[in-house]
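Technical note accompanying the year-one report. For the benefit of new consortium partners, we illustrate the data format agreed upon in the data management plan: each record pairs a sequence with a structure-token string. No post-processing was applied to the example shown here.
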Amino acid sequence: MSEAIQKHGNRNPIHWRLLTGVSVLALTAYVSSTGMATAEDSSQPQFWIELGGQLARNQTDLEPYLPPFVLTTPRPPFETISPQSVQKAEPSSWDGNAGIAFRPTGSDWIFSAAFLYGKANRDRSLRQQTANPAGGGTAYGGVAVAYQIVTSRNSEDHAIADFHAGRDFGLGMGVNSTINFGIRYVQFNAKSDALIQSWPTNTYYFGLHHRIHGHLLADRKFDGIGPSLSWDATAALAGSAADGEIAADWGFNGALLFGRQTVRGHHQTTNIAYIHYPTHISHLTVPLARSKQVTVPNLGGFAGMSWRSSHAKVSIGYRADFFFGAMDGGIDTAHRENVGFYGPFATISVGIGG
């Protein structure tokens, strides 16, 4: 009960800070727009809606589950592949993003909200065993076949929400530049389920032998929110805004996120001694329950090309975002790991109003 109370208690301040930040931005937008003069160019859209996607490479290093019975030496000769290789998470994900931007008539200010979500899953298994001995079998009257079976299921999802107020600063020579400040909220989740089953020796079935099982369940999470700052720039290369133009786009972003890392779960080792039937069973269960307040720096950027007209824009490029020390990737001890997403993206934007 106390753990549940603490969990909800830690989450509420984050949600309140997020709602407070959004309210401040909305109030700023209202005050700015009510004080604006008559439109200088009423043909420009007031609202832009953006939809897009990214094929992202995921960087999240989590400690593999390697219980002591897997590390003893010498290893059986049939174990040629390490269980560590089976437990690797999915290296990429398809991320989707959506956003809306509002520019009051006749103003250089832009107010925007954007959301990105991605998810990846990976299930893998490995079976290694000795060859069946001549004249033998796996049951009565033969030699038991030694084996190792590894099953691994990994899943992760990530969500990033941005609320910005930005000012358009023209740099001349056909270059538009926008400085944005605001709030960034992120949530990262990673789940691991690894099972290792081992019968390590070819032993006569009626002789003493062992079956050893190891099982890990781990649920990792990071929630964070904090101030953000970004710079976006566009340089016209050919054409015109009225008839359509091609432009180069680039930008950088940074944030300082304050949040909580948590790890919940357990790992268990079961050793079963056999002389034809189980004679002794021992269990060792180790709970995982860590929670810590952390500060996570975030840096990112993008570069690409776009075609745009007065009421539409299509962009392609490459984008990266890195969060330093965001996840606790350890098992028995805490180990802060970086989280990153990088890869090609494409977006479509439509202007409304004006």
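Partners are asked to follow this layout when depositing records. The chain is about 10% helix and 65% strand.
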